[in-house]
Every structure is written in structure tokens, then in C-alpha cells.
Amino acid sequence: MKTQSFILSAIILVGLFLASCRTEEPQTRYMEDVAGLVSAAGGKLLTLNELKQPPYMTEQGNYCDPALYRLRASGKGHTYDPYLDTVWLFSIDTLPVGQPLFICGRITTDDLSGNFYKSLCIQQMVNGKQQALRISVDASSVGGMYQLGQEVLIRIDGLAIGRYANQPQLCVPTYNNNVYANKAEEKVGWAPGRIPFAEFKKRTTLVGLPQTPHCDTVLITDFVNNLNQVDNRLEDGKLVCIKDVHYTGQYSNYGDATDCTTNNPDDFTNGSGANVFAPTTGNIGYPQSRIIADDNGNQTLVSVSEYAKFSHFYLPGADSQGIANCPAYVGNVTGILSYYRDNNQTKIYSGSDSNAPAWDDWSITIRSLDDLMLYHTTTGQLWPRIEYGE
Fold first, then answer.
1. Which end of the chain is more exposed for a tag (fewer CB within 10 A), N or C?
2. Residue 17 DSSP class
3. Cβ-count burial of 120 within 10 angstroms (0-12 exposed, 13-18 middle, 19+ buried)?
4. What is the DSSP letter of 95?
5. Is 296 strand, coil or helix?
6. 133-153: per-residue pLDDT in tens?
7. Residue 199, exposed/middle/buried by CB under 10 A (0-12, 13-18, 19+)?
8. In the Cβ-directed half-sphere of 144, how many Cα atoms lie within 13 Å?
């Protein structure tokens, strides 16, 4: 009996050893697994960019009547840029049933810090180039179930591909009938909604073990001056790193850069511009925008939810005295590139040409404070993380 126990223990140990040796499986093995799963289902594997173009994602969508989309969906009926009349910011295309359709990608987000609520992003490398897609899932624990770096194969026929504020996302159709919402006349209508978690789980297969996602190194000028909203959809959702930037200590005040204050971020009336990542919105819930810039003064935004765990931490270089030291902390900002345009009106900024690029439509959504690697230009010290009130 002891001999049998010893042999069993030895087999278990050998099995564990071999399993540990297989953690670094080659990427080709993962792709072979995906191809086998798709083939066994008689399905078709789409790239993420294929999904975001006709015939799967069209300009007006195929769901219901486009007239029932949000008023902000297009420029029709307004004194807007004529070009924008042909671009729809909100749309829904139902994906055909019949032949199984699949997409595959590696997860680039998590929600441990609360900044990616009920959503995740995936990436796919095609010919050495990153493609990306947002996925809306109705589960607050989706980041715990599907880990950062995990590759997933998702069956998508019968779901929908939609755009919310020009951001493509895998979704289901949802109708907003809240006639009492702020500016309800612009919000009531059909828009992309979250996939029920049970349905998403049924359709999703884990492939291999988590690996470090790919990250593109970019400059602010690589994206912020692009006026083509159709092209911008293909950039949205990518994991990127912007090097050699700093926080300016400012926020976007309807497109104008405004200095942050030392007011209490819990004060909805006076704290909206507080020098923290995301002061309260009074539970309205819109993302907060804080400005970063490079050495040449090119600017973009960093987006943080008021519900993120770090929302009331001071911006790098800011403190109870103000924002004077913000430019002293320089380094890298990593996160999800976001192109969010919810209104097709041509933007006019104070003192600027009405045809100027809408720089504040772009932002980087950080996953946690670990995405900020900013160091003091003189001392080399990593910026101290200080919460408001400390």
C-alpha cells in the first residue's frame, strides 16, 4: 500500500513538473488550438478590424430604424459640419446567424482599480500590427473571470457590433427610455448595451495561459490630429504607451484647458476642477479628463472614473498647495487609447479655428496607478502617491 502511495505521489510530482514546463507554450500552439476550435464548429474566424467594417459594421447600422438612434448619432438636422452628416456616432448592426462567426484576442484590461467597469478590451496581432476591440459585458466581476493577458475565443453570431460615441464594441441592442435624464432629448434611443454575463460566458473559450499583451509606443501627434472619424474607430481600444510626457495640472473644461484647484473633490458644486484624478460628478458618472503634454506642448487627456479606487489621489506633482510641480514629473503613461465623440457638432474652442482638430475627443484610460511611470526630473524620484486629505 505504501509502495502504491509512493508511486502515486511520484506521478503527481512529475505531472506538476511537466505542467510547469509547459507554461511558455509558443504562440503558434495557441493559434493551432483556435483554428481547430473554429474548424470543428464549421465557423469563420474574423480579425477585429474585419468585424469593424462592412458587411458586419455599417455606417447607419441595420437594427431598427436609424431615426430611433440617439439624436447625437449624426449631424442630420443641425447646423453641423456637412462631412459629419455622413458619419454616425451611434449605431447597431446585428451579426447574422447561420454560419458560426468567431473573433479571438488577448485581454488588455482589468478592473482591479475600478476604471473598467463591466467592460474589457482585447487585442489581436495581425501581420505585426495591433488591432483592438471593446466588449461590453453585464458583470462587475468580468475582470476577475477573464484575466489580463488571457487569450479568448468568442463566438459572436447572434450578437451585435455597435458604436457608442464612435467607439466600436461587441454588444447587444439596448433602448434608453429615460426621459428624465440630463439632456434626455439627445440620449433617448437605441444604443449598444452590455452582453448578459451568462451569454458571454457560454460563448467564450479560454485559449492557453495569460501572457503579457503587446503595447504600441506612440506619440501624441500620432493620433490627436486625425480628423477622419472612420479611421479613428480602428485606433480606439489599443493598448499604448506615450513616452516623455507630464501632467499639466489642468483639465478639459468643455475643450478649454483650465487649471485645477485645491478645492475638495467631494464638493460637487466647487470641486469639479480639483487637482485629483477624478472628483465627484454627483453620481452623474461621466469620466474625468486631466491633461498630459509632451515637451513640444502637444496635449491629450487621461481619463479616470470617479468610482476608481484612485480617483481622489493627487495628480503627479500636485498636492494641497497646488499644481506648480506637475511639469517636474516626466515619464511614460500607459493605457487604452480612447476616441470618444458623442456629438457630431463641429467643435469651436475659445480663440481657435472652428476647423481645429477635436483634441479632447482622444484620451488614455489608465488601468491603475501602475500605468504611470513618472519621475522627478532632478531627483529621479518616482512621484509620491498621495490621497486628498493626507
1. N
2. H
3. buried
4. P
5. coil
6. 999 999 887 878 899 999 999
7. middle
8. 6
Query: Across the chain, how many H-helices and E-strands are there?
Result: 7, 19
* Region for residue 18 given its phi and psi (left: phi exceeds 0; alpha: psi -120 to 50; beta: otherwise): alpha
Which cell numbers in the block locate residue 326? 506637475
The CA distance from 77 to 280, in Å, is: 34
3-class SS at 263? coil
Extract the C-alpha cell encoding 292: 498630459
- In 3-state terms, what secondary structure has residue 22? coil
3-state secondary structure at position 108: coil
Alpha-carbon distance of 235 to 68, in angstroms, equals 27
Angle at the Cα of 150 from the Cα atoms of 148 and 155, rounded to 5 degrees: 120
Integer Cα distance of 200 and 135 in angstroms? 10
Cα atoms found within 13 Å of the Cα of residue 115, Cβ hemisphere only: 26
Q: State how far the Cα of 347 lies from the Cα of 339, in Å rounded to an integer.
A: 15
SS3 (DSSP) at 106: strand
Alpha-carbon distance of 95 to 31, in angstroms, equals 24
Backbone phi, psi, residue 341, to 5°: -130, 110
Burial class of residue 37 (count of CB atoms within 10 Å of its CB; 0-12, 13-18, 19+):
middle
Computed over every residue of the chain, the mean pLDDT equals 85
Contacting residues for 225 by C-beta, under 8 A, at least 6 apart: 357, 359
Closest CA to 359 of 165, 157, 200, 222: 222
Assess whether pLDDT exceeds 90 at residue 269. no
Cis peptide before 55 (omega within 30 of 0): yes
- Closest to 298 in 3D by CA, of 216, 221, 218: 221
For residue range 330-384, what is the model confidence (pLDDT) as tens digits? 999 999 999 998 876 655 444 444 445 567 889 999 999 999 999 999 999 999 9
Rounded to whole angstroms, the Cα distance separating 289 from 303 reads: 5
Burial class of residue 54 (count of CB atoms within 10 Å of its CB; 0-12, 13-18, 19+): exposed
Spatial CB neighbours of 290, under 8 Å, sequence gap ≥ 6: 247, 250, 251, 260, 277, 301, 302, 304, 315
Asked if 163 and 139 touch (Cβ cutoff 8 Å), the reply is: no
Answer for the pair 232, 163: CB distance below 8 angstroms, yes or no.
Answer: no
